Amino acid sequence: MSQYYIIDFDSTFTQVEALDELARISLKDRLDKEKIFKQIENLTNAAMEGRLSFSESLEARVRLLQADQIHLKQLVKHLKKKVSASFSRNKDFFRENADKVLIVSGGFKEFITPVVTEYHIKKENIYANTFEFDEEGNIIGYDTENPLSQEGGKVALLRQLNLPGEIFGIGDGHSDFQLKESGMIKKFFAFTENIERKAVAEKADHITPSFDEFLYINKMPRAISYPKNRIKCLVVGNIDEEALAMMRKEGYNIRQRESIEEKYLEEAGVLFCDEAHQPTPMQLEQAGRLKVIGCFGKISNRKIADTAGENGIIIFDDPKHNPRNAEFIPKRVIDFMNEGKTHMSCNFPELQPPRVNNAHRLIHIHKNVPGILAQINEVFAKHNINIVGEFLVTNAQIGYVITDVNKGYDQQILTELKKIEHTIKFRLLY
Q1: Which of 173, 264, 347, 356 is most deeply buried (CB count within 10 A of its CB)?
Q2: 185 belongs to a structural domain
Q3: Which residues does the UniProt record annotate as the domain ACT (predicted)?
């Protein structure tokens, strides 16, 4: 059966509400601009949460805009920089599913089309409102006959389209949930990467904090192997809020505690700590999910660093109160989690592999004994897997191998790589 993906635009495909942004552009010279901005924002939220009909909200917002075609060009340029991060990194999905993806929005084609067509979405698959202009190019209204300008417009449109297959809806607002309520779509996914509207999320089939999560639970190809919202980042001690903001922006599940408790450390993929709150070697031996530690200060003794290395856990640290570490530590952690880079680690051999496009990256951490690389390559050869790039570094304790391979391979190779003797940790990065 064919599958179709109905995706909202505002606060879903993009991080922002486009009409709100257009108001900030068109009204920037008005003395009462903040008052009008607040009115437009309130009208947007009232419609998205189902407290005001969409048609009433739209009419009132457009009336307040006082925008023209020059403002629209500025808006498009701005929106292209505001595509949601998880949509942006999964551009391949849109290219490979160009016939199945529909943008359905109560926004306007004048600013939606130039943004989403850069992601291989077909113009004929974009359903939205259209503005009306006067001879000078000022916005004076919109096509009120378009079903998307009216309450329940997305439901009416889908009835007209009568798509022959299963339909999945992805969005953040009440109008998106109405598709589920109508019984016309199989599942509704409340998209919360940019904003979570509780009234909508409570009714969803699934809450998806990123597009990666949507692709993951539906077992579809994606840019990263495991959604970051599923990776817990345990934070203990005095950690700068700027550092946590960087991790939140990446999508990690932040969990703050006053001390390192085993039950929370065992669930964590990332640990942020300060000099006064460091894990013991015994705790590290039990932390099976932990991949990386960012210490805001110096690791207190060599035993912690060595035990971490023996268990495949990389550590980045920095002198206490160093002005750079609020950015330095999370950047090192993010680069390791995203690319496998170990540059400036205090316990791992250093490696800065270049990013390879159209390939999968596999990480193999093992005890530094002879013959491991040969065994890894034997697995690839047995399955006729083409190696695009391969990098090996070692220290006295461990070997660290990153292999980039062509897409399209038997999943059995992942199991075989994990079973190689002396393997400490194995991870499919992307």
Answers
A1: 173
A2: yes
A3: 361-430
